[in-house]
Specification:
- It is a single chain.
- With 398 residues, this protein is an alpha/beta fold.
- The protein is built from 14 helices and 15 strands.
- The structure holds pyridoxal-5'-phosphate.
- Pyridoxal-5'-phosphate binds next to helix 5 and helix 6.
């Protein structure tokens, strides 16, 4: 192993007394991100004012930072760009893919997909016309549901609730065999393990950066378009910064070169500065080491919890090939149990109706953290610490 995970852990600000198993939802603060944002605010915005767009390179940030993400997702350099939120990027990718695969009109997804992806697909189908449909099947039925009617598969590689991982290469191959295009949502993949978009032959991919990539709340999303489609894909959200020549201020839209056309409007400069600094942490990380550590940590957590808490039901696959980098257990009182855990310094989260979710992020979580989390969970269950009215009152964000 070449990666020094003690060194990466030291690069994060983690509050005292907290074991943070929620980096799959919102990554913690990389120490350098706070300094970088402060510098961008005072030295760039403060001193350069509008000159920052040229002098500080703000305008090129989305593709420069996109290239840094490309390595982590196995994309060809020059084919990833940052901006907007993931929901917007899902819309963009899906709209372009549907147009490219006309006259087919079926979008195929599964019921383990994140609701925003399904809602976006429903809205887009409604806009495109009554013949467009979103077909939603069980995750296990995706392969067999890909037939000659499917225009685009819209699949999130790792299920946000269970942590079950799809086989990207197999689904992409099957889609191509049947003449369908693929849109992959990498929200729970990018930074969780090495993704191989180019090797799998993926057509489009999108993802967020505030989870495993630690860009902070509201951090920008990314979009990938395979090089073979880059000059063909037409953006439905044809904003001025995706134009071939934004500062010509033409009255008619002409798509920009390659992935640049997937830009929409003004980039979030401060968030991109935070993300750029957060990506420095990855410089010394071998993705093989990361995956090995993630599986070791998730195995250890599963074994510990199953031994100590038989009343919790594992919903994450035991098979490594089918597992992302999170572990989930089911319990009818899941929400209250999670509140008790948080009150005792172990932070995970809850997903309705009954899922306790724990993310394992080797950059800052080690074996001692896993053992502590298991011990606290065992105590919460053995002593029914969760059984309090205030732990059962649901907050807005769970
Ligand atoms: C798989 C998946 N897709 C889409 C989204 C929506 O992302 P955003 O709120 O950044 O648009 C999320 C959010 O967690 C997600 O997990």
């Amino acid at each position: 192993m070449t990666t020094d995970f003690a060194a990466t852990k030291a690069m994060f600000h983690l509050p005292d007394g907290v074991t943070y198993l929620d980096g799959n939802s919102l990554g913690p603060l990389p120490r350098t991100a706070a300094d970088r944002v402060a510098k961008t605010v005072t030295e760039e915005w403060g001193q350069m004012l509008i000159g920052g767009w040229n002098k500080a390179g703000w305008m090129d940030q989305p593709s420069r930072v996109g290239d840094r993400i490309a390595r982590l997702i196995g994309a060809e350099p020059g084919h990833v760009v940052m901006g907007d939120t993931l929901s917007i990027k899902v819309y963009q990718a899906l709209a372009s893919a549907l147009e490219m695969n006309a006259p087919r009109k079926v979008v195929l997804s599964d019921n383990g997909n994140f609701p925003s992806d399904l809602y976006i697909a429903q809205g887009l189908c409604r806009t495109l016309g009554p013949d467009y449909v979103l077909k939603v099947v069980e995750p296990e039925a995706v392969m067999s549901a890909i037939d000659e009617s499917v225009a685009v598969t819209l699949i999130t590689e790792v299920d946000y609730r269970t942590g079950r991982k799809h086989d990207m290469a197999a689904i992409t191959a099957r889609a191509h065999e049947k003449g369908a295009l693929t849109v992959w949502d990498l929200a729970h993949s990018a930074g969780a393990f090495q993704v191989e978009l180019a090797k799998a032959g993926a057509d489009f991919a999108v993802g967020c950066t505030y989870k495993y990539l630690n860009s902070g709340p509201g951090g920008p999303a990314f979009i990938y378009v395979a090089p073979r489609h880059a000059e063909r894909a037409r953006p439905a959200l044809s904003g001025w910064l995706g134009h071939e020549s934004p500062f010509a201020f033409d009255l008619d839209y002409r798509a920009g070169r390659g992935i640049e056309r997937m830009r929409v409007g003004t980039p979030p400069v401060l968030q991109l500065a935070a993300l750029d600094a957060a990506l420095d942490v990855w410089e010394g990380v071998d993705m093989g080491d990361l995956r090995a550590a993630s599986l070791r940590l998730t195995d250890r957590f599963i074994a510990g919890v199953e031994a100590a808490c038989p009343m919790l039901t594992l919903v994450t696959p035991r098979d490594h090939a089918l597992r992302g980098s999170q572990v989930s257990f089911r319990h009818a009182e899941g929400y209250a149990i999670m509140q008790a855990l948080i009150a005792n310094g172990v932070v995970g989260d809850f997903r309705a109706p009954d899922i306790l979710r724990f993310g394992f992020t080797p950059l800052f979580i080690d074996e001692a953290d896993v053992d502590r989390a298991v011990a606290v969970l065992a105590r919460v269950m053995a002593e029914s610490l969760w059984d309090r009215p205030d732990y059962k009152r649901r907050a807005k964000v769970t």
